[in-house]
Specification:
The chain is α/β, with parallel strands linked by helices and 306 residues long. The chain folds into 2 domains: 255 residues, TIM Barrel (Alpha-Beta Barrel), CATH 3.20.20; 38 residues. It is 43% helix and 16% strand. The longest helix is centred in the N-terminal third of the chain and has 21 residues. It is globular.
Length: 306
């Protein structure tokens, strides 16, 4: 089985026609997409003729997709402690799963949510890092405060996450879909899950279609802030690796073209079964198409794709 390389629709907003959008990828030999959370229903409708003709494939959908109008007014969190909001998040995620089945995707990538009230602390920590204060007493104290507040406050949010993915798994089972849910490691330390949540979930809910989706940039940022060990998640749960978001990172600035940053991608290679999905996730500013091609060539040289 040849490993599948796809690219997320990071630049979909630049184009006035689907044909122009797809032409960029045809130039470098890519015919597989991940539809992300900015893609609306009319875009998917425009893609269907190309799907029917076999000109493109969809590897995965990134929740929420198609993007619901309600998302224009705020976030929908599967971890919400407000039951109405959490149930709404589940409902729209079910819509994403339904669409994934329709377009022949293998996976839905999910942000499970967050322990609320911690993003300000994380942003303060990032500011200190950028000022070269990573080894300062202020940085160390702030990091400890962030980690402790997450530990103290996480229980109810983690429980809400569990309720959500159980309901999503029940939906998949009732519909007899083969869709797998990729629970993505996240950028902010207050977000869920960290390795300790993966540990519990993959043991207690091993029968459910929940898997690890590893984002290189997110892992690198938290590793560089000394909040996590980026190797630990894969060392513990590499056998449940469903897919990768591949991009490079310098310090705590990610979504760069592979080969233009500091990530050594070698550490993941021993977990790369042929069926692991590999998705290029570039930042919006990456252009022209030659930059995309450079990243693909670099990954081929590294043996990440063929």
């Amino acid at each position: 089985m040849k490993p599948l390389l796809s690219i997320t629709t990071f630049n979909i907003d630049r184009y006035t026609t689907i044909e122009n959008f797809l032409n960029e990828y045809r130039e470098i030999g890519l015919d597989t997409l991940e539809l992300n959370g900015r893609v609306r229903q009319h875009v998917i409708d425009a893609l269907f003729p190309y799907l029917y003709k076999g000109e493109i494939k969809i590897s995965s959908l990134h929740n929420y997709c198609p993007r619901p109008e309600i998302m224009d007014n705020g976030e929908l969190q599967l971890s919400s402690l407000d039951e109405e909001t959490r149930s709404l998040a589940v409902r729209y995620t079910c819509n994403t799963i339904e669409m994934a089945h329709r377009v022949g995707a293998k996976a839905v990538v999910i942000h499970m949510g967050e322990v609320e009230g911690l993003k300000t602390l994380m942003d303060m920590l990032k500011d200190l890092y950028r000022c070269g204060e990573k080894d300062s007493l202020e940085f160390i104290a702030l990091k400890s405060r962030l980690m402790e507040q997450r530990r103290k406050n996480k229980a109810a949010y983690v429980k809400a996450c569990e309720k959500s993915f159980i309901e999503l798994s029940d939906f998949i089972a009732r519909r007899n879909y083969s869709i797998k849910l990729g629970l993505e490691n996240r950028y902010y330390h207050g977000e869920i899950p960290l390795v300790e949540e993966y540990d519990i979930w993959f043991e207690q809910y091993s029968q459910l279609p929940i898997y690890l989706w590893y984002d290189f940039g997110h892992g690198e940022v938290q590793h560089n802030l000394t909040l996590i060990d980026k190797y630990e998640i894969l060392e513990r749960h590499g056998e449940r690796l469903l897919g990768l978001h591949i991009h490079d990172c310098i310090g705590i600035d990610d979504h760069r073209v592979p080969g233009t940053g500091e990530i050594d991608f070698e550490f993941v290679k021993k977990y790369l079964r042929p069926d692991v999905l590999r998705v290029l996730e570039y930042g919006y500013g990456v252009q022209p198409v030659s930059k995309i091609a450079e990243g693909v060539e670099y990954l081929k040289q590294k043996g990440m794709v063929k």
